Amino acid sequence: MSDVVIEQPGLQGSPVGWIEQFADLEKVNVIQEYDTGANCFQSCQCCVPSWRHKTFKITDENEQEILKGEDETEGIFCCCSSVILGCFGCGPSLTYEFKDQLEQRVLKLTHPIRCCGRTIEMSGPDGNVLAAVNKTFSICSALDFDIVDNDGETVFNVSGPSCLSCECGGITYNVRKDDNDVGEILVSWDGPCGCCCCGCCDCAMWKFEIKFQRDMDVYQKLMMVGSVFLIEVMAERMREGI
Questions:
Q1: Percent share of the chain, pLDDT over 70
Q2: The whole model's pTM is what?
């Protein structure tokens, strides 16, 4: 893979300043919050799944914001529609869009309905696919993923925990490339009780801490960052039974 990240097909037409900020980083944070005002029935969140509007921040090691994003999914899926979809083994499709500090759209992540596959695609503003993250089947782990490039070649393997238990101290995902450890993803939750991994708190906040080698290609760093969004989606839907 070429080290000239700016020439990656999916990044054509994208402002280059934001991607350069990844060059010297060893850690990136992704913070996701729920806009609980978008809930259909907030009081029922513990009982049935519901659609909740999400906002995101991607920050550097010093908590300086690089990108900000939000859920641009069309339509609102309330508790009732989520239950109906869950009965058929499906969940709603999702679209997340990200902007840089100049309010320019630079990234888009899309996730189809569950019955059409367990994958999330990352694309640039020109619509070309940068990479994809696919959930893989594993007997040993409920949350394993492959990160593939725009040619469909596997770049990273991400291994998660054997089950999605209520790990109040956080969960660690190991990232490997060619059978070598190259990074890790730490997942934690925050809320009024200090633990929202069960999805019961209206003001739940997810935080992903992505660690990688400083000299890693910035395009590959971005691929690792993109993987956390499928981790979040799949973990959330597993808890809600969708």
A1: 60
A2: 0.76
What does the buried/exposed string (b/e) look like for 6-33 if buried means 16 or more CB atoms within 10 Å of the residue's CB?
eebebbeebbeebbebbeebeebbbbbb
User: Residue 29 has which token pair?
Assistant: 């944070």
What count of Cα atoms within 13 Å lies in the side-chain half-sphere of residue 223?
Answer: 32
Sequence-distant (≥ 6) Cβ neighbours of residue 213 within 8 angstroms: 26, 182, 183
Of 199, 206, 213, nearest to 231 by C-alpha is 206
Residue 17 DSSP SS3: helix
Alpha helix segments (H runs only) across 88-217: none
Chain centre to alpha carbon of residue 196: 17
Average pLDDT, the chain: 75
pLDDT digits (tens, 9 = 90+) for 94-111: 899 999 988 999 999 998
Paired residues of 55 in beta bridges: 33, 70
CA distance 81 to 192: 28
Any idea of the CA torsion for 111, 9, 220, 129, to the nearest 10 degrees? Answer: 10
**Spatial separation of the C-alpha atoms in residues 174 and 181, rounded to whole Å:** 7
Residue the block writes with tokens 């869950």 = 86
Q: Identify the CATH number of the domain defined by range 26-240.
A: 3.20.90
- The answer on pLDDT for 40 being more than 50 is no
Q: Where are the domains of the chain?
A: 26-240
If you average pLDDT over each of 16-20, 116-120, 177-181, 204-208, which comes out highest? 177-181
Radius of gyration of the chain (CA): 17
Q: What is the pLDDT of residues 141-171, one digit of tens each?
A: 567 899 999 999 999 999 987 665 555 568 8
